[in-house]
Amino acid sequence: MARSEAYEVIVVGGGIGGCFAAATAAANGAEVVQLERKPADQGGFIACGDAIKSPTDPKGYPGPIDMAAITSDEAVLADGNIDKIEWWDEELGVRKVLPYETHSNVIDRYEFGQHLLEQTGELGVTQHFNTVVNGIVQNGQVQGVEAIRDGESVEYEAEMVIDAAGAQSVIQDMVDFEDLAVEPEPTFEKPHYTHFGSAYREIIETDEPVEYQNAIVGKPLEEMGYVWYFPRSPTAINVGLGFQMNKEPIALADRLREDVEDRPEFDGASVADRFDKKNKLGAALALRRPLDSMIAPGYITVGCAAGTTHPITGKGIRGAAFSGYSAGKTAAGAVADGDVSEQRLWEHNHYLYVEHGEAAKLAARDAYNVAASSIDIPVLRAVAAILPEDEIREIVSTKTSFDDLASKLSIAAGATKNLVSHYRKGTFEHLGVSKEMLYEALMGFRTTREYVDRYEEHYENYPASRDGYFEWLAERDRIDDEFYDAIDLEPDARKYQ
Ligand SMILES: Cc1cc2nc3c(=O)[nH]c(=O)nc-3n(C[C@H](O)[C@H](O)[C@H](O)COP(=O)(O)OP(=O)(O)OC[C@H]3O[C@@H](n4cnc5c(N)ncnc54)[C@H](O)[C@@H]3O)c2cc1C
Fold it and tell me: Could you tell me one molecular function GO term of this UniProt entry (predicted)?
């Protein structure tokens, strides 16, 4: 028979979301245990491009974790000089430079993860490493988890379970949501596989500093995805690539080799070592939009498991952090109130969509994703080539607004200038993109922008209590249908079909 241990809050996962959740719940008075399947010295060793946006911004990283202390350690913040994003389409001779005034950095993700775990422990969280969660205890509400700790079966009981187990979490697969005490039906949205992407990276050490040492660089793949070069230091480059799971899979490691092998800066370079192995890691990641509802009785989910992460716009680490904070605070409050119902835990959904608000922005911008997924890659590359930097910044949300007439006119003028120049160079003939195809894509893009605004307004009106949820959801689904019709989306390209 399994040994049993009791706490008030169980946090599954020792990543970003798990640490922010556990630390916040403990700082708010709860008795917390954090369960992580890896050994203590490998916690935080996670597949990542290592790019972190504004790491000391309290909105991105709220709660008791001291990000200033962590990122002031040179072992974590090897290169704090990143001040631009560059988009290279080398075949077309395109190089877009987007200034990054919100300040980005490339960190050593392992060192960062170790510091996070250490601070979480110091804030009073009990941490069990080498502990794999492999079962759920539920009876009307989620009441605990079953796990194997150092080879021994342990049953952990608690009032609240926070699922911070990352993309494609097995925890949410194991909870029987239909069997929980919720009327008329559970609100929790089970993630669909198209919520996720798959990505892979290597840390490559070069002999000489790379020329783009203060930029994070992205490049298109012929498939729906992109390659990145993120300099962790002038000579240690996080090089990786990824694709969305609604597209054909790519042999990621082979595809990366193909990309780097002829580049002069990687001539003679080698993959760095970590734990006596080559530092190569791949994983799934959530890169679409937050779940419509992230709670169930006794259960809250965060980070990649909740879809609050959007690595493409620099919110992979950050999206796990602020959602972890929200879950920790909500869970501690619910335990103190003796009420872990959906009504009580609704605070988590509402905070993320309305008070914090980032979830509303991410969810609204998923319209760009839906639209882009339905366009052929050569057409997308042509669109990226002619769009001025300002417009791209809006899409990747490094810029907040350009609604005044002057900026709109300058964007239109910029696009026309780029269009003329690319026609002269023969870019579009080379890609096999006709004027009609380009025009259609640009019109679709304009329509999508209008819908992004409509979605954002709707998400900002996310219901304050569970009572208004199903009505709100029906209206969101109606906007979806209208949007798909407006951009003539094929039925099989529609969201989550
Ligand atoms: C290749 C790649 C590149 C990326 N690049 C960037 C980037 O440059 N910038 C950025 O901001 N984001 C990036 N991301 C995304 C970012 O890494 C994630 O958004 C972030 O790690 C999510 O944090 P999390 O806490 O939700 O999940 P994770 O970091 O995945 O943590 C989950 C934890 O749960 C543990 N766990 C899982 N299942 C169990 C179980 N059953 N029992 C016990 N423990 C369990 C895991 O071991 C892990 O430690 C990238 C992701 C990938 C895969």
Answer: oxidoreductase activity
